[in-house]
Amino acid sequence: MQTPKHECHCCPQCSEEPVSDAQLEMSRRQFVAMGGVLLGGLTLAGLRGSAFAAEADAQALGPKPRKPLIVKPVLVHDLPQRREKSSWRNWGGIETQEQAAEEVARIKGELAALKAKADYPIEFFDVSTATDIGQMNGNADIAACDTILLYGAGHNINGVQNFGKDVIIFQRWKSGPVYLQYEIVSPRFLRQHTDVSAIPGIRDEDVVTDKVEDLDWRFRALCGLKNTIGSKIVTIGGAAAWSQPPGVSVPELVKKVWKFEYHDVNYDDLGKLITEARADGAVMARARQRAEAYLKIPGTKLETTMDFFVNNFVLDEVFRMLMRQVGTDMITVNSCMGTIMGQAQTSACMTLCILNDDGYRAFCESDFVVIPSGVLLGNICGKPVFLNDPTYPHDHIITLAHCTGPRRMDGKNYDPVRIVTHFESDYGAAPHVEVPLGTVTTNIAPDFASQRWVGVKGTICDVPFRPICRTQFDIQYECSDKLLAERMPGFHWMTCYGDYRKELGYALRRVGIQWDNLDEVPTKEMA
Question: Which residues, in sequence order, are CB contacts of 96 under 8 Å at separation 6+?
Answer without folding.
Answer: 79
